[in-house]
Amino acid sequence: MSRPLPPSLVNLELKPDSRVPIYQQLFGQLRGMILNGELASGTRLPATREIAKLIQCSRSTVLLAFEMLMNEGYVEARQGSGTYVVDTVPEDAIGCRSTSAAPDKMPAGVRLSTTASALLDLDIPKSLLPHSRVIFPDVREFPFGTWSALFRSAWKQPEADLLGPHDPMGYLPLRRVIADYLRDIRGLICDPEQIAITSGTSHGLNLLFQLLLSPGDQVVLEDPSAPWMVAKAIACGAQPLFIPVDGEGICLDANSEAASGARLAVVTPSHQFPLGYVLSQRRRTALLNWAQRNDAWIIEDDFDSEFRFAGRPLPPLYTADQSCRVFYMATFSKILIPNIRLGYIVLPPQFVESYSRLRAIVDRYTSLQLQPVVASFIEDGHYASHLRRMRALYEGRQNTLLALAERYLPELLRFEPQDGGMHSVGWLLDSLPHNISAARLADLANKAGIPLSPLSTYCHRFPRPEAVLFGYARYSQGEISYIMQKLADLTGCKGREAG
Amino acid sequence: MSRPLPPSLVNLELKPDSRVPIYQQLFGQLRGMILNGELASGTRLPATREIAKLIQCSRSTVLLAFEMLMNEGYVEARQGSGTYVVDTVPEDAIGCRSTSAAPDKMPAGVRLSTTASALLDLDIPKSLLPHSRVIFPDVREFPFGTWSALFRSAWKQPEADLLGPHDPMGYLPLRRVIADYLRDIRGLICDPEQIAITSGTSHGLNLLFQLLLSPGDQVVLEDPSAPWMVAKAIACGAQPLFIPVDGEGICLDANSEAASGARLAVVTPSHQFPLGYVLSQRRRTALLNWAQRNDAWIIEDDFDSEFRFAGRPLPPLYTADQSCRVFYMATFSKILIPNIRLGYIVLPPQFVESYSRLRAIVDRYTSLQLQPVVASFIEDGHYASHLRRMRALYEGRQNTLLALAERYLPELLRFEPQDGGMHSVGWLLDSLPHNISAARLADLANKAGIPLSPLSTYCHRFPRPEAVLFGYARYSQGEISYIMQKLADLTGCKGREAG
Q1: A19 touches chain B (CB under 8 A)
Q2: SS3 annotation, chain B
Q3: Which domains does chain A have, with CATH numbers?
Q4: pLDDT tens digit sequence for A105-145
Q5: What is the ipTM of this complex?
Q6: Which of residues 247 through 286 in chain A touch B, CB cutoff 8 A?
């Protein structure tokens, strides 16, 4: 009586550990096989006891799955003969059979919007897309135990204010904590009402660009700067206007005529990305005057000023702005962990209402789940102590980098010491015998798993001397040593004898 | 010797429970007072012991704060005379004093982009912005204990794959779990590679509109539909084309000529929002044919099909699509909690690469923190059991609503029974003596804290009979009873004697 099993049944894969009951798993998988044609119309299913034996479960489990299949119209019992796959499954009866059951389907082509095409044509190197490849914290040092305990205490029995419909600006207690933090640590005084929680800097920039830039508008970008900044301009139909950066930051004083028609400037005054310079006092004044004179706005991206090793950090540009033209942005991704995707904007007061309404229309609000966790993390002092620890660690790592690059790569790279941050710029030395380019060096390094980026990828209109960016913050001193030696190997550098 | 304290010092507010040390709190607050002018230049600070007495701490704590103020240049010691606020604080020396210290600041006006202005001109009623005011689950029933325990087990000692740079498509294990779920529960077969995790439906629609719609393109929207759908069209410069809905869903068959130039249609086939109808078989065919004929795309928003009380749910439109033109969207917000802001899209295979690159450029990826938690929640069966429990609960609540509206508001509203969902449409009865409008009824109700929305707010070109939408899912039976009686009170309905 026992016939061979339909071959597809050996593909049944049931997980006894799953909390989805076995009969439901069996039902789902058999239905899947019927829908994709592995069990064709008219196929006789094996007896329930054979299947039970095959998948090592009780016969009643299989019976239950069969009953469901029968109820839902996928199989039918034929008197005295067994259970068969029906001729017309329910999906066919209503013309809804899954695509994968249709061998003759004709996939349509891809026709993208003009904006999407323009963005994808930018062909930003994949390695650069996470800005954070260069600016990436050492996540291994993050106090995950504390973090997850704080999550649990926020959500185990959540307060009522965590459950209602939410303010597009974010969770008010977190915004209050941020206002206190900005006052105490950055000398920036603002009302919590001005603070908008975002899903990270990239997301915040999208919102501000959408708020401020009309198609055809010019937007001032630093040169060099992150390549995806250009994408944000294009996404809202704006034209990037590149202004060069020197040791005092963006040269808007010498270029204020050219920029007189621009509506917006995006700048990194505390620590220019990627060169690391601090915007000087006279350049700050020039920038603010430019905005005032041209009725333009400034976005201040303060992405890593917390990691300052020496000297007092300059207060944010925001604090010197007498005419409410500066939007101050910062992120938690660099101090906590990048994948939480949380940042904030301090809005000029006159924009609070329009921003908040726009945010609600565009994408509602940022997930509330982590906002009370970050608030407790700051309020309970974990943020300050983690920051202190990381700052010391990163300072040590920069010192290691400088010393070891000097030892192992003396004729290849000169890393510039910086007062803070998480990455360093390594300038290629002319004396290099085999005259390697930064792009070639980065390529060699990337193939060996070392994330170096050529500075040229960040340069838009103004070429720079050959250099590479290296985010040392994420590597231990031992790892930095390994990387320096590996780079010496890859490039045939001789290095210096240790003293 | 003891002089009166400067009055502003009584505003010092130190939190002994905080883990921020008292001296640091004191430093921050004194600096704040100096910056905002409450402690003016030349003011003599009280002796440390007086402050110590005032704030009840040790004198050494105050000394430490004074030392920091002195080091950072905010106060100076004058020989034998005490400690004074300096004439020029560091922020002034570099021209960066905080705005709030500048009484003469001149806030700039608000000049918005053309897009932002157009969006804000839509003047979408605030009450509607959270779509979820109507479609809102009963979050009190959510198993927060399990949820927060799962978070903790994912993040206490996170796996390595949770810490690296991330795929813009989302966390692969979650996408695998979703693919299994779609196959078993919705009969939708797809590759996990096709699944993109989004920050909710609204966010997912932004991305798809940006991917597919060029300025000037037409997009077919259901009429009625959520008002913010129009905003999404405007945000990318597209023109909404409204097609009416009847008992069989969107009437694209009768309007396919008018829609022949449109690039995209956004539809709710499983449960039309807000009317609740199911797209019939012939209309499904018409819709798919329309897309095929016009080289257009379809977004299927399957926002609440899980809450189906009776009958077998129709499979998604996606499963009947033979030419890969349907983008299938769903959300976790309705079954879990809205504030997690997580959803997903099943992309037609030919769009996986372009979508993924676009997402990386636009806003990188969705916060990874909750993705492993949702994956475990589904895999461990909590999702299925919560869904089962909620489905039974909501069915009971709909029955209660129908019965109690019949008892208390017989001459005012007739709620239509639906096979599923989380809300109901209450049609106003002509027989009403005082002839109240739906807008007026909603207004009265909102003032009493009852979220009713007039159907007219969802109608774009085609007026409908007067009706209100009521999201009953979030209310217990007792609360529904209270609400029905309250509405009777507000409108002077007599009601029927209970039998």
Answers
A1: yes
A2: CCCCCCHHHHHCCCCCCCCCCHHHHHHHHHHHHHHCCCCCCCCEECCHHHHHHHHCCCHHHHHHHHHHHHHCCCEEEECCCEEEECCCCHHHHCCCCCHHHCCCCCCCCCCCCHHHHHHHHCCCCHHHCCHHHCCCCCHHHCCHHHHHHHHHHHHCCCCHHHCCCCCCCCCHHHHHHHHHHHHHHHCCCCCHHHEEEECCHHHHHHHHHHHHCCCCCEEEEEECCCCHHHHHHHHCCCEEEEEEEECCEECCCCCCCCCCCCCEEEECCCCCCCCCCCCCHHHHHHHHHHHHHHCCEEEEECCCCCCECCCCCCCCHHHHCCCCCEEEEEECCCCCCHHHCCEEEECCHHHHHHHHHHHHHHHCCCCCCCHHHHHHHHHCCHHHHHHHHHHHHHHHHHHHHHHHHHHHCCCCEEECCCCECCCEEEEECCCCCCCCCHHHHHHHHHHCCCCEEEHHHHCCCCCCCCEEEECCCCCCHHHHHHHHHHHHHHHCCCCCCCC
A3: 7-101 (1.10.10.10), 116-382 (3.40.640.10), 385-491 (3.90.1150.10)
A4: 567 788 899 989 888 888 676 555 544 478 889 999 999 99
A5: 0.81
A6: 263, 281, 284-285
